[in-house]
Amino acid sequence: MLQAENILISVEYDYVLKMLNGLKTAEVRRRQLRIQPGTRVWIYSKLPRGHVELVATADEVVAASPRKLWELYEKRIAITSSEFRTYLRGVDIGCAILLRDIKPLQPALKLDALRQTSRNFHPPQFFKRLVAHGPELKSLVSSFAPS
């Protein structure tokens, strides 16, 4: 049996809170993300917070025009139409990661803690594939206590 792939994405803290509250279950990206359904998605809150806060499962990844993404997932994206248009301005095909089983990390893993186990760690601009048995993934998995 194949082990699920793990990726890390960076998200603004306001949106992380919406994910935690169940309001945001679709994360939009300007470029297509090539991951399989079932991929474990670790969610990092950008600085100034600087913590890996959540883990979720990618249910599906949809590549489509911004207009189509908005038509299909407006409520799940949980941002304003203006924010959406601004973010995807100039993009012909965007991407929505449909998330399920969103769970908080208890406690959240601080950026400093990740850098202690992996000196060259930098939060991803787009996304980062996490290596099985690598120090970053080991740190994340050890901090994850499902609630």
Topology overview:
Layout: E1 6-11, H1 13-20, E2 26-29, E3 40-45, E4 51-64, H2 66-77, H3 81-87, E5 94-110, H4 111-117, E6 128-130, H5 135-143
Parallel strand pairs: 1-3
Antiparallel strand pairs: 1-6, 2-5, 3-4, 4-5
Can you put this structure into words, describing what you see?
This protein is of the alpha+beta class and 147 residues long. It has one domain (6-121): Hypothetical protein (Archaeosine Trna-guanine Transglycosylase, Chain: A, domain 4). It is built from five helices and six strands. The protein has helices at residues 13-20, 66-77, 81-87, 111-117, 135-143; strands at residues 6-11, 26-29, 40-45, 51-64, 94-110, 128-130. A six-stranded mixed sheet has the order 2-5-4-3-1-6. The longest helix is centred in the middle third of the chain and has 12 residues, at 66-77. The chain is globular and about 40 Å long. The mean pLDDT is 89.
Compute the CA-based radius of gyration: 15 Å
Helix/strand-derived category reads alpha+beta
Task: Choose one word for the global shape.
Answer: globular
- Alpha-carbon distance between the two ends: 26 Å
* CATH architecture field: Roll
How do the strands line up in the largest sheet?
Answer: 2-5-4-3-1-6
CATH class: Mainly Beta
- How would you name the CATH homologous superfamily? Hypothetical protein
Q: Low-confidence spans: pLDDT under 50, at least 5 residues? A: none
Major β-sheet, in short?
A: 6 strands, mixed
Overall residue-averaged pLDDT value: 89
Tally of separate domains: 1
User: Helical segment tally?
Assistant: 5
CATH topology-level name: Archaeosine Trna-guanine Transglycosylase, Chain: A, domain 4
**What share of residues are in beta strands?**
25-35%
Q: Helical proportion?
A: 25-40%
Number of strands: 6
N-to-C order of helices and strands: EHEEEHHEHEH
